[in-house]
Amino acid sequence: MDLVRMDEKRLNIPATHDERMELRRELRDFVRQKSLCPPVSLKQLEALAEEFVSLKGCCQELTSWLMVEINNQLWIDIIATIPYERRLLMLPKCLSRHGECKAEFDEYGLLCHRCGKCVIPTLQDRAEDLGALSIVAEGFTQVIELIENNVVDAVIGVSCLDSLEKAFPLLVSHAVPGLAIALNDAGCINTHVDNAYVEELLTASAPEGHALLDHDAIRRQIDNWFKREELECIFGRQNDKTSRVCLDWMITGGKRWRPYLLCAVYQAITGDTRMNEDVHRAAVAVECFHKASLIHDDIEDKDNARYGQPTVNALYGDAYAINAGDALLGEGYRILARSNNMELVRLIADAHASLCKGQGAELEWCAAPHPIDMDFSLEIFKNKTVPAFEVSLLLGLACTGNHIHLRPMLKAYSEALGIAYQLKDDMEDFSQDNELAVRPSAVLALRTMHSDWDDERVKEELQRMVSQYKQQALDALDSLDCLELKRLLYQVTEKILK
């Protein structure tokens, strides 16, 4: 459910404590019968809430509250396995007694004096007794920061339904293991919450701890692999100029998204934090292909700077740069061939051929421009942009040696994500007044198809299409039953399309 649609619904919650607890019990049974793996999208949460409304004959105005509670039931068994010291209890200031509370409020939240006039100190003391972190603050933005900075793994948040309407999509899109409890009354003064329910969720525990995927550890490992001395072990020490140029380019700049995705997919599926030699080689090889494509792109686009530094063609000329790019392609195939897993070689070769096909179609159009429609642009995106996302995910899958049944899902996800990314890129270029008429972009297609549209109408349509394909990417994950892989892909979607 998007924010606009949520705002159109009248926010409401069940009137009495007994009604709320009865519905929560019924929701627990309803969700368990579905055998769903979190996270699930807002669209899917809305569909589940509406199914429950129809099944139980509930009031339609409860939909938003039901979505929050359904999400709680999806996450509670996972959060129960997370150590207390990795949990955060977040309470709203409005639980304090207005006009009587003497507590100060600084950048970290409310500094409670523990006067005993409200429930805040009781809940905070319970959290601290367990070893959990507790804050009194407004908004969930800082919760995302705490999660991303590896301070906590899970959040139990109390807020009014109106605030949850704004914050809830943020928690869902970032795949945060979270439980949300709506206040029982509206307004921002002297509010109440089902205290026992908050404590029930806060204290939930299970004997088996769940070790969430450590994304920072993966990043650190990859950073080590791309240090000069580590790359020399993979490439072999060679003193010729071309090899030195290739090595210099491999350690220069970039976020190394492709090696990260490959390794993260492998770990998410296998749970193996000790990445073997095949994973190592595939991660280096996929970056070789990426860096080679950048060299060739810079030549074709006549770019002289990348990462704030001169490009290879700017330093050595086009002919030498072509040769260096070709050398990196050769290194990539040579490294993969040493893995004795020909599936890795086939996947890279398919992606390589597709990317060249897409680039070729773009170059052909640039040489002889003609009117285009959106189908033409999307076909280029599928060949030029999509393989860059897809190949890393499929390589990570292939390194597991199993789970081939996940391939169609990853391909569908990658196609939708790649198209959404390129549409977003076109929209940002358009917003920055860059000249897009020199290549077959989505902007040019819309202008050709709708000559009467002004710039704002074009931007609105691009944004609509980005949202459409983003949702398609998430829809592709609906049936995925691997928690860590699903969380990873939700987070990747949010970061790439943020």
Quick structural gist:
The chain has 498 residues and is an alpha/beta fold. It is 62% helix and 6% strand.
Explain this structure.
The protein is globular, with a radius of gyration of 26 Å. By secondary structure, the chain is α/β, with parallel strands linked by helices. The strands form three sheets. Strands 4-1-5-6 form a four-stranded parallel sheet. It has a two-stranded antiparallel ribbon with strand order 2-3. Strand 2 and strand 3 form a beta hairpin. Helix 12 runs antiparallel to helix 13 and helix 18 runs antiparallel to helix 19.
Numbering strands along the chain, what is their spatial order in the largest sheet?
Answer: 4-1-5-6
Gyration radius over CA: 26 Å
Record field, number of beta strands: 8
- Mean pLDDT rating: 89
Shape: globular
Query: What is the helical fraction, as a range of percent?
Result: 55-70%
The number of helical runs is 22
Task: State the separation between the terminal residues, measured CA to CA.
Answer: 18 Å
Strand content: 5-15%
Structural class determined from secondary elements: alpha/beta
- H/E series, N to C? HHHHEEEHEHEHEHHHHHHEEHHHHHHHHH
Stretches where pLDDT is under 50 for at least 5 consecutive residues are 1-10
Major sheet attributes: 4 strands, parallel
Q: What structural keywords apply?
A:
single chain, 498 residues, alpha/beta, four-stranded parallel sheet, two-stranded antiparallel sheet, 22 helices, 8 strands, 62% helix, 6% strand, globular
SSE blueprint and pairings:
Blueprint: H1 3-8, H2 17-34, H3 42-56, H4 63-79, E1 87-91, E2 104-106, E3 109-111, H5 120-130, E4 133-136, H6 141-148, E5 154-159, H7 161-173, E6 178-182, H8 195-203, H9 215-225, H10 228-235, H11 241-250, H12 257-270, H13 277-301, E7 305-306, E8 309-310, H14 312-316, H15 318-337, H16 342-367, H17 374-384, H18 386-399, H19 407-431, H20 442-449, H21 455-475, H22 483-497
Parallel strand pairs: 1-4, 1-5, 5-6
Antiparallel strand pairs: 2-3, 7-8
